[in-house]
Design brief:
The complex is a heterodimer of chains A (418) and B (164).
Chain A: H1 9-17, E1 33-34, H2 45-57, H3 68-87, E2 95-98, H4 101-111, E3 126-130, H5 139-148, E4 151-157, E5 163-164, E6 174-180, H6 192-201, E7 205-209, H7 221-224, E8 228-232, E9 243-247, H8 249-254, E10 265-268, E11 273-275, H9 289-305, H10 307-326, E12 331-333, E13 346-350, H11 355-364, E14 367-368, E15 370-372, H12 377-382, E16 388-391, H13 399-415
Parallel strand pairs in A: 1-14, 3-4, 3-6, 6-7, 7-8
Antiparallel strand pairs in A: 2-9, 4-5, 8-9, 10-11, 12-13, 13-16, 15-16
Helix pairs in contact in A: 2-9, 3-9, 4-5, 9-10, 10-13, 11-13
Chain B: H1 3-6, H2 9-16, E1 29-34, E2 41-48, E3 55-63, H3 66-79, H4 84-98, H5 108-111, H6 127-163
Helix pairs in contact in B: 2-3, 3-6, 4-6
Classes of the chains: A alpha/beta (418), B alpha+beta (164).
Chain lengths: 418, 164
């Protein structure tokens, strides 16, 4: 791949060839334009081949037994961990695998409420999140508050879809501040440095939902200064069934386990158990071995293109989508309309045409978008809409696909009579 | 699959000019149903006859896509004036058709304009849209009947009391 920042047409053709599904002709007779990578991304042959090769030639149990396949599998699993950890700027020992990002966020929310952790959230404490969140970074905190008697508070959202830092002042009762790195609706990125600074000033831990950032830009959790971060494999060209939790090493060391059982122990008697050091402490039971291999291949694939090139390419797509949609009367974009202030995805409503109906017309044109509230119901309520159409981009998308999106929205307005 | 198969003219007509829309008095029961995937909702009221045997009125309000709005409009056309038994049979027939993935055509004598939704059955993601108002109606009838039963039982008890 080119080392320069911009992907040229040749690069894009080569990248698209790695994703055979992108050539599919859909039921309306049109080639697929996949603009739903924010929900889940397509997977390149390199990821599928890595899993297949692993399962065909090396598969066995990890961290147990003494045969050759066990060794090869353990190596593949741990080397995969090292590659994935390096991809997000952290040490291998700071990255625990989960079945998805939702489980990773639940894991944090459970261990932070566990009385074995000396800083455990309890009655009178405050948990802070934002109105911008995906349900996965909201409901676990609602539940932690319910279990512990703590109070849930949140930063509001401004009219342009940013976290409103003036809407809430933190004090020493705040134990956790959980927020997104990158909204899955407005495309805005909250000011992580400032939010971490404010949390640290009152002694609160920070939890970052990085599902929508890790697949699309260079991310370094240590540089961001957050205590925890979660991301998923399937949104970053990797397999389903695999997510990851980053936790600062010193912090993970002090935390009790979430799920318990095999693989996460040190010693076990009939009366009790002691637990393995992190990250194994947080990986109970047989793990997602081939998925880790696949995810590591996805991280290497993205690295090969270069995350700066990925980000620059997606920026171009977002700018084109905003520009195209802005020219259509009756389209209202949720979040900033200036590409400089946001990233993918682009969510919007169309006056007089319901999101579901817009999505159906686009589907007829082979353009796959997400419609609904995108698991961010409170945010939709904040903007006074029930459902939006959301086009989300990945490295394999093209400007031609953006044009098809814009044309499809025009067709929907025509079809439903505006 | 082409768009016109799903969005037949009759569906678009009901969507643009819905029948019996708006919330009215009197009513025996009111329910609020939500489609959790998109946040669309319907508030629907049912008025049964005093003996609980007939559907006298259905009124509704809410927000939703063309399919959910048109389907609710068709519902009111079909079942207002029917006996409760026939209305529930109509609901069952509509539910069967839209859940059939396109294998059940639907009987126009039973479903009226509802047969236009046969095309929707081929799009599993839209089945919930089509059923939003219909399932709300079913729930409202059950509630209205319970309260009618309660009223009937109460008046029956009163009759017995009076006879003592």
């Amino acid at each position: 791949m080119t080392a320069s920042v911009d992907l040229d047409v040749t690069d894009l053709v080569r990248i698209r060839a790695d994703f055979p599904i992108l050539s599919r002709v859909m039921r309306g007779g049109q080639q697929l334009a996949y603009l739903d990578s924010g929900a889940t991304s397509q997977k390149p042959l390199q990821v599928l081949d890595a899993e297949r090769d692993f399962l065909t030639n090396h598969y066995g149990a990890v961290h147990r037994g003494a045969h050759q396949l066990m060794e090869e599998s353990t190596d593949a699993y741990e080397l995969g961990r090292a590659d994935i950890a390096a991809f997000v700027g952290v040490g291998a020992g700071e990255l625990a695998f989960t079945k998805n990002a939702t489980e990773a966020l639940n894991l944090v929310s459970y261990v932070l409420g566990d009385s074995r952790y000396e800083g455990a959230v309890g009655p009178g404490d405050v948990i802070v999140t934002t109105e911008l969140e995906h349900h996965a970074n909201l409901i676990p905190w609602q539940e932690l508050a319910r279990r512990t008697g703590a109070t849930l508070k949140w930063y509001g959202v401004t009219d342009d879809g940013n976290v409103d830092l003036d809407s809430l002042q933190l004090d020493e009762r705040v134990k956790v501040v959980a927020f997104t790195h990158h909204s899955n609706v407005t495309g805005t990125a909250p000011p992580v440095a400032e939010m971490v600074k404010r949390a640290k000033a009152v002694g609160a831990l920070t939890v970052l939902d990085a599902c929508q950032s890790v697949p699309h830009q260079s991310v370094d959790f240590r540089a961001l200064g957050v205590d925890f971060a979660a991301f998923s494999g399937h949104k970053m060209l990797g397999p389903t069934g695999i997510g990851a939790l980053y936790g600062r090493a010193e912090l993970l060391e002090t935390l009790p386990p979430f799920l318990t059982g095999g693989s996460m122990i040190e010693t076990v008697t009939m009366e009790g158990a002691t637990y393995a050091p992190p990250p194994q402490r947080f990986e109970a039971g047989t793990q997602m071995i081939s998925q880790v291999v696949g995810l590591a291949a996805a991280a290497r694939y993205l690295d090969g293109i270069g995350m700066q090139a990925v980000a620059a390419h997606e920026h171009e797509l977002v700018a084109a989508a905003l520009e195209g949609l802005r020219t259509i009367p009756g389209v209202r974009i949720i979040g900033p309309t200036d590409a400089a202030e946001r990233r993918s995805p682009v969510a919007f409503v169309v006056d007089g045409v319901h999101a579901h109906d817009v999505g159906q017309v686009l589907d007829d044109d082979g353009v796959a978008v997400r419609v609904g509230h995108h698991c961010a119901w409170p945010l939709h309520r904040r903007f006074g809409v029930a459902a939006t159409v959301r086009a989300s981009f990945a490295v394999y998308n093209t400007l031609d696909e953006v044009d098809r999106l814009v044309a499809g929205v025009r067709r929907a307005i025509e079809f439903f009579g505006g | 699959m082409r768009l016109e198969q799903m969005y037949q003219e009759v569906i678009l007509d009901h969507y643009k000019h819905p029948h019996h829309r708006g919330l009215r008095e009197p009513f025996g029961a009111e329910v609020h149903h939500v489609n959790p995937t998109c946040g669309d909702d319907v508030t629907l009221r049912v008025a049964l006859s005093p003996d609980g045997e007939h559907v006298e009125d259905i009124s509704y309000d809410g927000q939703g896509c063309s399919i959910s709005q048109a389907a609710t409009s068709v519902l009111t056309d079909q079942v207002i004036g029917q006996t409760v038994g026939d209305a529930l049979k109509t609901v069952a027939a509509f539910t069967e058709m839209v859940s059939s993935r396109g294998t059940v055509e639907g009987d126009e004598d039973v479903l009226g304009d509802g047969v236009a939704f046969a095309g929707v059955a081929k799009y599993p993601a839209r089945v919930k849209c089509a059923l939003l108002g219909w399932l709300a109606f079913k729930a409202a009838v059950a509630e209205a009947r319970n309260s009618t039963d309660a009223v009937a039982q109460a008046s029956h008890r009163q009759d017995l009391e009076d006879k003592k």
